[in-house]
Amino acid sequence: MRGFTRRLVAGVAVASAVVAAAPAPAQARAHTKDSYVKVGYFTQWGIYGRDFQLADVQQSGAAARLTHLNYAFGPVTADGVCASADPWADWQTSFSAENSVDGIADAAGQPYAGNLNQIAELKAANPKLKALISLGGWSGSKYFSDAALTDASRKKLVGSCLDLWIKGDLPGLSDGIAAGVFDGIDLDWEWPGSSGEVGNIIRPEDKRNFTLLAAEFRAQLDKLGKVNRKKYLLTAFLPAAPAKIEAGFEVDKIFKYLDFGTVQGYDFHGTWEPRTNQQSALRVPAGAPDNPDFSVENTINTWIAGGAPKRKLVLGVPYYSQGWTGVTGGGDGLFQPATGPAPGIFAKGTEDWKTLKKLPAQGFTVHRDLRNGHTWLFDGNTFWTYDDPAVLLQKSLYIRAKGLGGAMMWSLDGDDEKASLTKAIAAGLR
């Protein structure tokens, strides 16, 4: 996520054309208000260099439009248990009044602080919002295969995850001190049965073991839920590539245990390739050099064909871009050779939408493929593929027409101070 990582008013004319061209969302009539899930990922490390706080999620209006907040990430250790990747960020650091959701500075001696306390404040301000801890991620999935290998190892992992994140037994503090912060678990094993980060442990048995791990999470969450009279959620982040789906997931079995699965709808192409391309198109664009190729439609259809229930598929959308520089070949820059990744503030080849939206004033031209649902920027040398509010509205209409469960956003820190992207999705899925 994932590989590691628009103004709606400005896109009204384009959005209107998208709405007119979109198929009638007949299945949407079966949905009631707020029945679509809107899942936003908040990154643990975003509070540092990006200076993006949970207070920003509240103050921008994003929180009021989300149904679920996924906190990324909690790694699985070599010992096969859940742990914190950064206890300082999670529950130790104090926030000023300016950076606190409730506007009150953390005080010395309070039970716990950090992002977990801010999540609790965010939920208090938005009572319908559910928070989940996302386990693994691109750099935290190395030992998932070991932890899922046997019945005993699965029980050990799940028990430790519930103790730490659901029961709130924070190390060095009183047991249960952070109980109630999280309402469930999001499995971000990247990837069972196929490659992810270099050095990840991979086994052919991962495919079956993912199902068994999901079953164990479901069983232990339900058992705890009976005690607490609470429904705990279990979700998973799922890949786009058909080969990864086939290698790692018993598609017709896993949704018995999952409340829903968020499907990767981005990183279809990127700067690991020598030519420009789309990273998140709704459909494969005309003239695409790869056949077969990735698209939202192809990915969703693959999951459905495998037996996934439509209403449990939640489409992931990017709040960031993939970018190339040294682009030659002329034209609008699409499908052209490039010398390498474009400069980015936090990493080469990627950039937040909140930065990209300023580029048209700096000599970049916005290009749109309304039929196939993707947008890009090009100035004759540098190329960025991204989603803006108009594209997200089009994808929201696709979600409705297809009968899917909702949208997931990676990640909230890429949005602007007005939460323009989140508001576009919420408008489409209201």
From TrEMBL:
Gene Ontology molecular function terms on file: chitin binding; endochitinase activity
One GO-annotated biological process of the protein: carbohydrate metabolic process
Stretches assigned to the GH18 domain: 36-430
Annotated signal sequence range: 1-28
Annotated transmembrane regions: none
Record EC number: 3.2.1.14
Record's catalysed reaction(s): Random endo-hydrolysis of N-acetyl-beta-D-glucosaminide (1->4)-beta-linkages in chitin and chitodextrins
UniProt keyword terms in alphabetical order: Carbohydrate metabolism, Chitin degradation, Glycosidase, Hydrolase, Polysaccharide degradation, Signal
Pfam families referenced in this protein's UniProt entry, alphabetically: Glyco_hydro_18
Family to which the UniProt record says this protein belongs: Belongs to the glycosyl hydrolase 18 family.
Protein name, UniProt field: chitinase
